[in-house]
Design a protein that fits this description.
Chain lengths: 349, 229
């Protein structure tokens, strides 16, 4: 194998997901292969113009790379943040509904997962999850997830700006909910979410898993002004600092804007309308030219914010009781010492 | 009856631990100490430990600045001298004595003298410049306590104000013998119970025990003529 890393899709059903997975793998210089048990290559003719997906069998996986990483919420899986797997590895992601199969999971040398915080949405879109896995395993060195007493106090607001595709936006909304946000602002310039036709609406909602996704989607008018103290714009262009070096956990006074760079011109946008201080951060994508997918960029950005926002400690620490103290002070004073009244005065009264 | 370092009386244990805080349990032979105790029963085998002049592990004394219009009646040197005159029983386990500003006090009791914070922290608070003009009428117990240390308590019934004057060093004696000894009583009770950071008695019982300790130590000090009656 020429490349040092491979993304393996196990029993992927949806050819559109498989295509986006290929794009995600290309972004990080990885090969992409599929274990086809669901007739993926039969639908490929529609999805990618007849070119079949490269297939792989489970018995070929151990020989492919030194380490095989199962990326799923399996029991005992480590968190992906700060996980070191070396330069030569394959990442296995599972079926959209069923996850990684037992045949593949048992071949894994490492099990990792991305921590989810929603009670209703416990997984990401498979292509988006692949992008997150490759982003953190392919050299972006970050620390482990922060542990805080009240992580939600550090959670910034998120604005999904100008998405051009309803499925991409739906997947981004799904990721936002899965990473623990309760609400998200949407500036829907292309009218792919609010006010779209029935078919687009149904597909978008399905991608967002709207049936069980309780996130509140707040529409923002195009060009509307906001009063956030700090606005952070996440791009793929080399603007500002890398995303993991910037504090994205400043709480609700911070707005993180994730624009769809296919539709939004970063340099032409009036960012100061959103808040007082504007900063740019960029995702460290190794490839210079790649096929842009909004859900991938949004999910990577949201995963990084989620890492910085952190979670509560798994160990419940009982607050230490106040040690006893004893004050030595004056007793309460009487308001008045009384008054001497003679009997004569009393009788006169 | 078995005798070991664990069953030592408080006074002996405190003296030994203050002189050698990091001594191992096995060091020194308790049987030898018992022999010494028989030959010198008045010292109970601990020659020179009780009311000794200096200890290796004494408490820190910290003196903070006062608010304007307030002062510290007792200085650092006086507190050290007083603590050493009490002896090891009160010093063992005592970490710090801080002479600090008045805390924020809720309620109408405006005068706060001291505080014991478990484990081993005593706070002595600054006091207002003399004379004290206290709004309201001082109760009988406080009046008696103040006058026993030499204070002159005057109740101005027309204006409902109590004036307390402390001639000469009487306020210093009150802070040392009345307040610091009382707080040391809290410490002695709390420290020898073992469960040091937790409440080991009802506040009323704690206060009563501290007051008993203070009065006992006060009478011993006066009997030893270390302090004027």
């Amino acid at each position: 194998m020429n490349q040092g890393r491979t993304l393996i899709g196990d029993s992927i059903e949806n050819p559109a997901n498989a295509l986006v997975m290929k794009a995600a793998a290309a972004m990080f210089g990885a090969a992409c292969r599929f274990r086809d048990t669901k007739g993926l290559n039969q639908g490929a003719s529609v999805a990618q113009g007849g070119e079949p997906f490269m297939s792989i069998e489970p018995d070929q996986i151990p020989a492919l790379h030194r380490r095989a990483v199962a990326f799923d919420n399996l029991p005992g899986a480590a968190e992906i943040y700060g996980y070191q797997v070396g330069p030569d590895f394959s990442v296995m992601v599972g079926n959209e509904r069923r996850g990684l199969s037992y045949e593949c999971a048992k071949l894994a040398s490492d099990k990792v997962q991305v921590p989810m915080f929603s009670r209703r949405i416990n997984c990401l879109n498979v292509a988006a999850a692949s992008a997150v896995a490759l982003y953190y395993l392919c050299g972006t060195r970050v620390g482990p997830m922060a542990v805080r007493g009240e992580p939600n106090n550090r959670r910034p607001e998120v604005l999904l700006l100008g998405a051009g595709d309803h499925v991409e936006l739906g997947s981004a909304i799904r990721s936002t909910a899965a990473f623990g946000w309760g609400r998200v602002f949407i500036e829907d310039r292309q009218q792919v979410w609010f006010g779209c036709d029935r078919a687009v609406r149904a597909e978008g909602r399905a991608a967002a898993r709207r049936g069980k996704n309780e996130i509140l989607c707040i529409p923002c008018a195009t060009g509307a002004t906001h009063g956030f103290a700090r606005v952070t714009i996440v791009t793929t262009q080399a603007l500002g600092e890398p995303v993991h070096r910037v504090n994205l956990a400043r709480g609700p006074s911070q707005l993180v804007v994730i624009p769809d760079e296919k539709k939004v011109e970063i340099s032409a946008e009036a960012w100061l309308r959103l808040g007082k201080e504007v900063e740019f951060v960029h995702l460290q994508i190794p490839a210079t030219e790649f096929q842009y997918h909004y859900r991938l960029m949004a999910t990577i950005a949201l995963a990084e914010i989620s890492r910085q926002v952190g979670r509560r400690s798994a160990i419940k620490v009982r607050p230490a009781g106040r040690p006893p103290f004893y004050d030595h002070r004056l007793a309460h004073l009487a308001d008045a010492g009384g008054q001497i009244v003679s009997l004569e005065d009393l009788l006169e009264y | 009856m078995s005798r070991s370092k664990h069953t030592d009386p408080r006074r002996i244990r405190a003296g030994r631990r203050l002189h050698a805080p990091f001594e191992s349990r096995g060091s020194r032979d308790p049987s030898l100490r018992r022999k010494l105790g028989r030959s010198l029963p008045e010292l109970n085998g601990t020659p020179g430990l009780d009311r000794a002049g200096s200890f290796r592990a004494g408490p820190r004394i910290i003196l903070r600045k006062t608010h304007p219009g307030f002062h510290h009646p007792a200085g650092k040197r006086e507190i050290i001298q007083f603590l050493h005159s009490i002896g090891p029983i009160a010093l063992y386990g005592l970490r710090v004595v801080e002479v600090v500003r008045t805390p924020d006090v809720t309620g109408r009791a405006s005068l706060v003298f001291g505080r014991y914070e478990a484990p081993g922290r005593i706070l002595l608070f600054e006091q207002p410049e003399l004379p004290w003009c206290v709004p309201g009428i001082l109760n009988l117990a406080d009046t008696k306590r103040f006058t026993s240390f030499g204070a002159i308590v005057t109740i101005q019934s027309d204006s409902q104000i109590t004036t307390v004057e402390w001639p000469k060093d009487s306020l210093k004696h009150f802070m040392l013998e009345g307040v610091l000894l009382h707080e040391l009583g809290h410490h002695a009770l709390q420290h020898y119970k073992g469960k040091r950071p937790v409440r080991i008695a009802r506040t009323r019982d704690h206060e009563a025990a501290a007051e008993r300790f203070a009065s006992r130590q006060r009478s011993q000090l006066r009997a030893a003529r270390r302090l004027p009656k």
